[in-house]
Structure formats: C-alpha cells, structure tokens
Specification:
The chain has 1008 residues and is an alpha+beta fold. The protein is built from 28 helices and 33 strands. The two termini are 111 Å apart.
C-alpha cells in the first residue's frame, strides 16, 4: 500500500499563516477596545480636572472680588483682574470679566472685546472647539449675590497632555503587535517544522519503512509525540517481523502435518492450494493439483463421484462441518480409501473450504477382518447362557441380541431396548448406564456393573455394561446380563441375618471386635470404632494388635494379645486391671474387657470375640472421690491444728503488741519485737490457709462476676514480672455463686504456679466460657447445671503424669520454697463451691488448669455498701467470753491497756448469768465479746440470741479465728454489732471497741 500525499502546503492554508492571521485580528480588536477606553477615560479626566479648577477658583474669586464689587471700587477690581490674568501661577485664565447684578460690566481683563462676552460652555466637549472653557460664576457675600464673574479657562495644557498619552499608547500597542507577530511567526515555524517531520515519518511508515525515527529533542508535547511515534514505529516493526515469522511457521506446519490438506475456493470448488503431504499421498506436484476440483481426485465409483462430493461441499459451506470416508484416486489411477473432513474457514476477506484427508487403507483392511471376527464372535455369544445385546446410545435401538435373549424376550433387533426388554416403561430406564459409559470427552470409561430386576421375567440380573465401537465406527452400549436370582435369594437371607447381627452389635454399649483364628480382625461395632479410632473397612483383615493396641497403664508395657490367650486356653479370659487402649490418634482409654472363643456347630474354634468398655471416666471419678475423701481427712486434722495454734498465736501476738507499747524499750528490743510480730503475722496467714483448707473455711457465696476477680488476682501476682496474661472472656459470661476472696486465692495459686513454670517469661492464656454440664465429661456436677468454665493455660515446662497425680496433695511441692498448700487449698475451695478442678499437662509443652463453677440462679450482681463509723470515746465495762484462758488473758491485758474494766467468762451460759447479774446490780456490761464456737459448751451464736432476748440493747461482738465463717462475714444477721478476728492485734482490737462504743445502733462495720 502506497501513499502519494504532497509535502507542499499552500501558504494561505498553512498552520503558521492561520495562527498569525488569528493573532493580528485579536490584537486589532484588543487595540481598538484599548484606544476607545483610553479616549473615554481621558475625556473624563479633563472634565474632572476642569471642574476641580472651577471649584478651587470660586472661593478665591469671592474673596478677591466680591467685597470690591459690593463697594463699587472699579479701579481696584480692574487691578485685581489684571493681576489675575498676568499671574504666572494662573496661566489657565485667558480672560475675566466682572459684572454687577444688572449684568453691567464693571471691569474686564484679557478679553479683546470686553463688550462681547462669549456664550457659556455647558460641557468640556463644547469648550474643546476653541480650547477655552467659558463659564460664569456668581460673587457672593454672606450668601448674598453682589455680582458675577465671566471668565475663560484655557484647556491647552490638558489637551496637550491628553494627546501625548494617546500617542504613547498607540506606540506601545504597535510595538506589542510587532512583538506578538514576531513570536507567533517564530513559534509557528518551530511547531510546523516538527509537524512536517511527523507527517514525513507517517508517510514513510505507511510506505512500509518501519525503521523510521523522528529525532525531536526536548520535553514538550511535540517531543513526547515524536517519542510516542518512535515507540509506535518500533512496535509496528516488531509486530511485522512477528507476523512474517508466524507466516513462516504456519507454512512449515502446513507442510509438516501427516495429513493431506486441500484449500478450495468456496464459490467454485477449485483447488487453490495443497500441502506437501497431499502431493506425496496423491503422487502429483502442487502445480498439478491447483485448479482441479474434488472430482479429479475421486475414484468415480458411485457414490464417490463429483456429484457426491458436491453434496458434502454444500453441507460444509452451509456451516455444518463434514467428516466421512471417501474412495479416492490419484491422477495416475491408483485408488485407495481416505478419512476426509470438510470445514468452512474465512481467510482474509474470502471464504475457503479446508479439506483434511488421511489415508485409511490399512484401517479399511482391518475393518474387513473385524467383520469376519464379529461373525465368529456372534456365534460364540449365541452359545452363552446369558443375555447379550447391543443398543445405540442415542436412539436406544437394539442392534444385536444373542440367542438366549431372543428365546426369553423375542427378536428385539430394530426395537427400542426399554420397550422390548421391559414393560410399562414410558421412557429410558431409570437405571440406564448410558451417561456413565462415556467421559466428558466422549471416551469409554470402562465396565459399569449394576444389579437390576427385570420387569418382564421378575428375575434378578447382574448387568455388565460398556461402550464399544460398532461396525460402522459409532460407540454403542453392549450389555451382558447374567441371571443371579438364586444367588440374590441367598444373599438376601444372609443380609437379613447380618442386619439382625448388626442391630444387635449396635445396641450393645460395649465395644465388640471379632477375629479369625489367626488374630485378624473380621468385625468392629460402632463403639469399638469410636474407642480404637479405626473404621470397619480400614481395620478388616488387619492383625488385632495393630488395631486393639493395649498397654499396662502403670508399666507402659504392651499387654499379651488376648486372642493368643483365648486360643491357648479355649476359655473366656479377662484383662488385668490398669489396662489402657491406645487409639489410632494416640489417645488412651482405660478399659475393662473379656475375650471368648467363637465355635462352630462342631465346637471347633473359628475365631475370637472381644467385649470391652471404656472405664476411663469411672476410674477418674473414683480417683477424684478418693482424693476428696483424703483431703477431707487431712482437712479435719489441719482445722484442729490451726484452731489450737490460732489460740496460742493470739497470746503470742497479743503479748508482743502489749510489750511494744512499753515506752522504756530499748531500740534493739523494739526491733526484735517488730520482727517477732511480723513472724507471728506470717504464722497467722498460714493458719488462715489451714482453716480455709479445713471445714472451718466455708465460703460466703454470693452472685458475682468472675472476670474482675480473675483479672485483679492475676495482675496482682504478675505485677513487675516477665509473664503477661491474655484474657479471652465473652461479654455475656454468666454470674457465679462464689466467695470472691477464696476464688481470688485459687486464681493466685494457679497463676503463681504458671509464672514459676515459665522462668524465661511468656504468656498465660485465660479463657472463660458458658457451658452446659451435659456437654462436659468427667465432671461430678448435676447434669442439668449451667457452668462457667475457666481455663488457665501456660506454655511452661509442664509436668509428668506421676507429678500430676500428687499436685493436689497437701504439702506436696516440687519447688524449694513454699508450703505445698496452694493447690490443695485451691482444690478444697473449688469443692466447697460445688465445683470441679482439673489439670492437664505435657512435659515441655505447658499446663492447663480448668475450673468448673456453677452459674448463679440470680444473674444480677449485688452491690455491697460500705458504712462509715466514727471512733468511740470513754471507758466501759467489757465482758470477754472464750474457752481458752490464754485468749481471755491477752484480751484482758489489751482492754485494760485501753482503760476498760474487764469481766472474763468461759462459755455462753456463764456469760448470760454474769450479764444478768451486772444488769440487775445497776452496773451493766457495756460490751460483750463472745467466741463463736465453744467445744462442749454454748457458743456465741446461741448465747447472743438469749442475751438479746433478755436485753435487746445488748452490744455483742463476735470473735473467732475462722474469718470465713458465715457468722463472721454476716454478723448482723446473727444479732452481733461487730466482729473481730483472732488472734487479736492491739490497734484493730482498739478500733473495733471504739467504734462499737460510739455507735447508736447495732448496724456497725467490721474491721478484720
């Protein structure tokens, strides 16, 4: 393709001429507007200046002439006028004439003809005719007109200035026009020069020169356009080269294929091109083939003639690709068979018919041999005692049926299979396998086996269907149907028996495994599958030891194969205690089982059956109950020791407090007493732990939210350490019935253990969930109980199995420091909360403690209000009731130190009697301090009731070493006015006494 555009453009059509013409037109329009506006502004300026001068002259003339005119001093008026016209400062006054009120001239100066006054000018425009502005102004004295003055102002200087401004403006405008024209001409030249370069490059590309480049330097738009043009030219060059290479490859492929290819003109059918394989196949040259039609290469034997070929060609041109076998001949007369395909294709703007031809002479020969084989095969099929038939997969027409089929169903060839071989069918059979015999590419998938019941004979048949190639090349369905009715009847009977056995096995709550005499598994029921982790289909045929892997829980050694024991003894055997089943996933279950031989009718052993059940939870519950009983026993002992030790500690700590009050103590002695007091307080804390562990530490429970307790306790323990807590707590977590103090102690004990397990630091995960006891296994809690589950998990060193079994035992510890009571107390607290605590641990992988606490029936937390108590004053008579003399003595010493009178009694009966006696004598007791429990006597709970019945105004303080006792926590409910914890500390004891003395009612606060 060529382009003959002229490179010369007439000057009057050039872009540069158009730009200059447009610029001149715009400049002229702008200059005209500028000049018009300038003249208008200058006229306004002249008129403004004239008015300004008149306004300035009017008062001057009044001052100089009004008085002389009024006095008729004509000579002086004349002299003034002469000075005004001759003054160098008033050169703008050409003439001036003064008139009286009757318009008679008084004096005149500068006017050639004083008697002929010119007409007044109404505007500056009228005055420009003679360049004099003629005007008349009145002369006034104190608002009274005494005459007038007629004078002419010269406009020569203002007009000269105006003309100069106009001339200079025109010069500037002309210079601007010339510069603009010069700039446009130069810029137009630069632009059009590059445009001509771009146009020239475009013409060269259009003429086939794809290597042309336009060298325009710079970074402006034209340079960018030139750069884009160069990139485009390079891309076109690459594309053209690729097209040429592609054409060469296509030509190579065209001649490289093994099939002969003809390219025909779709309109005439003439051969336009052929490939090299065609020349070789038909023994001719390319020139010999071109120009001929398909008839030249057909054998001419009907229907393989030109007319027959034209039918195929017309169908392909209509858009239906053709594929057929054709008998062809070379130009030399040699004939052979080919597989031909015709397809219409668009090449350029023309329709072409592509014929691809493959020599199938060998295949035709094989087909003939195959037909002979088919005849032999048909004879063989007719001799078989089974139905064999062939049906078209699209039309369902029966193409062949063997002798056996004809005897049962009649001659079905040519009929529809589902009509001839079945009854009451309105369409293809529901079990028809046509869609299963071919894959997505139309290739046979293999044999499809199915069992069907024929609707004609009512017999059962095993059908084997497959897609085969029929004699004409199409794929058809061949079915071989074998009558299996007797076998089916036997199988149904066996299946019914198996179903009864399966139902029986499924209904058994124990695991059942059966093996043969070699110990290979034959059957597992559902429970056995669950416990072993093996499915029936996977386990069947495997050795028993591979699936039923049992070990001794204590020694971890494998147990003897129970099948071997049964086979050796021929008797029912049981497994030893502490047998664990290791499942496929590695999990373990404690089991109890038995094995028994399976015998046939002749009492011969033909296998072994194992029956076993999971006793893991049972063992765990028994161990848990044993642990609880052990802890209860230890708790009773701990409570008794703690109670007695608490009384002894009361005397020690009380005497230390009293001794410390001695002002004569030496500093060294004071330090020793302080150290002894601190040691006693630590002993007091240990006593409280023992009391909590014992029966005396019953929790004071109320509905509370546990997340706050967890976070406060954990953060307190971990403060300043390299271990952090990560909380996963839902917003809708249920409230629980807990003693916040005791649960805080549990959380702190667990967090402390987790922190010690991670000396290098780490993260403790605390996860809380709402769960239902129905979904929690191994927890001894009511099955319909809502539970709050708290899991505390660390990633520390973990614990071995032998340590886990002992961690809740009192005084057991793996740490050098500590009492070993922490987890034992935690276990006791959780049990007293009707909850459950569990632990799991893996060495070097971490430990997980899980708490299960009952959810509160009341899901609204109660707020506890604090009351403020004022300090008491004055001395009082105070009764102390305690069964321990050392406690009474230290209480008396402290109260006496406070200045009070003290009465001591041993039990509640003595307290009631003494209180009545003092009341009757007129010297009543002000305060009674009662011990909560008196072994073998009346304690504070019973005594306070009788005392209040006698004297409702009695003030009774409860005292006990059990700080968590209900009466100590809720003393108001029992009639007490305050509570004080043993062992007494002087300052706290003093504070409680003073508060009670200062109160006016019984609702006072507790100081612990």
């Amino acid at each position: 393709m060529t382009f003959n555009h002229s490179t010369d453009v007439p000057w009057y059509r050039s872009l540069r001429f158009k730009m200059v013409t447009a610029a001149i037109t715009i400049e002229l329009i702008m200059l005209s507007a500028l000049l018009f506006n300038s003249f208008r502004l200058l006229d306004q300026a002249v008129e403004s200046q004239t008015q300004t001068r008149l306004e300035a002259l009017s008062p001057l003339l009044d001052a100089a002439l009004a008085g002389r005119v009024f006095q008729r001093d004509h000579a002086e008026v004349k002299a003034i006028l002469t000075r005004l016209t001759s003054s160098s400062q008033l050169t703008e006054i050409n003439y001036i004439t003064v008139l009286d009120t009757a318009d008679n001239i008084i004096a005149s100066a500068g006017h050639p003809d004083p008697g002929d006054l010119p007409r007044e000018d109404n505007s500056v425009t009228e005055a420009l005719t003679d360049l004099t502005y003629d005007v008349r102004l009145p002369l006034t004295i104190i608002g009274t007109e005494v005459g007038s003055v007629h004078f002419g102002l010269s406009l020569v200087s203002m007009v000269a200035t105006k003309d100069q401004v106009v001339r200079e403006g025109v010069i500037i405008a002309m210079v601007e026009i010339l510069l603009s024209l010069l700039l446009l001409t130069t810029g137009g030249y630069l632009i059009t020069r590059h445009i001509r370069s771009l146009a020239e490059g475009t013409r060269r590309v259009a003429q086939g020169d794809y290597n042309v480049r336009i060298p325009i330097a710079g970074k402006d738009e034209i340079a960018e356009l030139a750069n884009d043009f160069n990139v485009m030219s390079a891309a076109i060059s690459t594309h053209v080269n690729d097209l040429r290479a592609s054409e060469m490859r296509s030509h190579a492929i065209f001649n490289a294929v093994s099939e002969a290819i003809f390219i025909h003109d779709a309109a005439t059918g003439k051969i336009l091109d052929v490939n090299q394989p065609m020349c070789e196949m038909f023994s001719c040259s390319r020139e010999d083939a071109i120009g001929n039609d398909m008839g030249a290469f057909s054998s001419g034997i009907h229907p393989y003639t030109l007319d027959g070929a034209l039918d195929k060609i017309q169908a392909a041109i209509a858009g239906t690709p053709q594929r057929f076998d054709w008998h062809v001949a070379t130009l030399g007369g040699r004939t052979f068979w080919v597989d031909a395909s015709l397809r219409l294709a668009r090449i350029g703007d023309d329709d072409r018919l592509i014929a691809v031809v493959r020599d199938i002479s060998e295949r035709k020969k094989a087909d003939e041999e195959k037909n002979i084989a088919i005849a032999r095969f048909k004879t063989l099929l007719d001799s078989l005692d089974a139905l064999i038939y062939v049906a078209d997969m699209k039309t369902y027409e029966v193409l062949f049926i063997n002798k056996y089929g004809k005897e049962v169903w009649g001659d079905a060839e040519g009929k529809i299979c589902w009509q001839a071989l079945q009854v009451s069918q309105n369409g293809p059979c529901a079990f028809c396998s046509n869609d299963k015999l071919l894959d997505s590419l139309g290739k046979p998938t293999g044999t499809c086996i199915s069992l069907i019941r024929n609707t004609v004979t009512r017999d059962w048949y095993e059908c084997r269907d497959q897609a085969i190639q029929w004699t004409d090349g199409r794929l058809v369905r061949m079915e071989i149907a074998i009558n299996i009715t007797p076998r089916k009847i036997a199988e149904e009977a066996l299946a019914a028996e198996k179903e009864r056995l399966s139902v029986t096995l499924r209904s058994i709550g124990d695991g059942v495994i059966t093996t043969d005499t070699d110990g290979r598994i034959m059957l597992l029921n559902a429970v056995a599958e669950k416990l072993t982790g093996w499915k029936q289909k996977d386990a069947q045929g495997r050795p028993l030891a591979e699936v039923f892997n049992i070990i001794c829980e204590q020694t971890r050694e494998p147990c003897v194969n129970p099948v071997e024991k049964v086979m050796a003894s021929g008797q029912i055997i049981g497994l030893a205690n502490h047998t664990a089943l290791v499942a496929k996933d590695g999990s373990e279950h404690s089991i109890a089982d038995s094995g028994a031989p399976i015998r046939n009718r002749e009492s011969e052993i033909i296998g072994v059956v194992l029956v076993f059940r999971d006793v893991t939870e049972k063992n765990r519950m028994e161990e848990e109950l044993a642990k609880v009983e052990k802890l209860k026993s230890v708790g009773v002992l701990a409570g008794g020791i703690a109670h007695d030790f608490n009384n002894i500690l009361a005397a020690i700590l009380g005497n230390i407090n009293l001794a410390a009050l001695d002002t004569n103590l030496l500093p060294e002695t004071k330090k020793l007493l302080d150290a002894a007091e601190k040691a006693s307080l630590r002993a007091k804390d240990l006593t409280q732990q023992l009391l909590t562990f014992s029966k005396g530490g019953e929790p004071i429970k109320q509905a509370a939210s546990i997340p706050e307790v967890i976070k406060d306790s954990a953060d307190f323990v971990l403060h300043g350490s390299n271990v952090a807590c990560r909380y996963h707590i839902p917003d809708d977590l249920w409230l629980v019935e807990i003693d916040k103090g005791q649960i805080s102690q549990v959380i702190q004990n667990i967090i402390i253990n987790a922190k010690h397990a991670m000396p290098e630091g780490g993260v403790i995960n605390v996860v809380c969930d709402n769960v239902d006891s129905l979904h929690v296994e191994g927890v001894a809690m009511p099955r319909d109980q809502k539970i709050v589950k708290v899991s505390i998990m660390d990633s520390g060193i973990g614990m071995s199995a032998n340590i886990i079994d002992k961690i809740f035992d009192p005084y057991f510890s793996t740490k050098q420091e500590g009492s070993g009571l922490g987890l034992a107390i935690s276990h006791s607290i959780i049990m007293k909360h009707n909850g459950h605590i569990a632990v799991k641990s893996t060495p070097d992988a971490g430990t997980s403690f899980t708490l299960f606490l009952p959810a509160s029936a009341d899901q609204q937390e109660k707020e506890k209000k604090e009351e403020v108590i004022e300090e008491g004053k004055g001395k009082a008579k105070i009764m102390v009731m305690d069964d321990k003399k050392i406690v009474r003595d230290i209480a008396k010493a402290m109260l006496s130190q406070m200045g009070h009178e003290v009465v001591l009694v041993e039990d509640g009966a003595a307290a009631l009697q003494s209180y009545r006696e003092h009341h009757d004598s007129g010297e009543p007791v002000d305060i009674v301090i009662m011990d909560l429990t008196i072994p073998g006597g009346m304690g504070g709970k019973d005594a306070v009731k009788e005392m209040l019945a006698f004297d409702p105004s009695a003030k009774v303080i409860v005292s006990s070493g059990y700080s968590n006792d209900a009466a100590m926590a809720n003393w108001q409910e029992y009639g007490f006015v305050a509570a004080v914890v043993k062992p007494y500390q002087f300052q706290e004891f003093t504070k409680v006494i003073n508060q009670v003395l200062s109160s006016t009612d019984k609702e006072t606060s507790t100081i612990h």
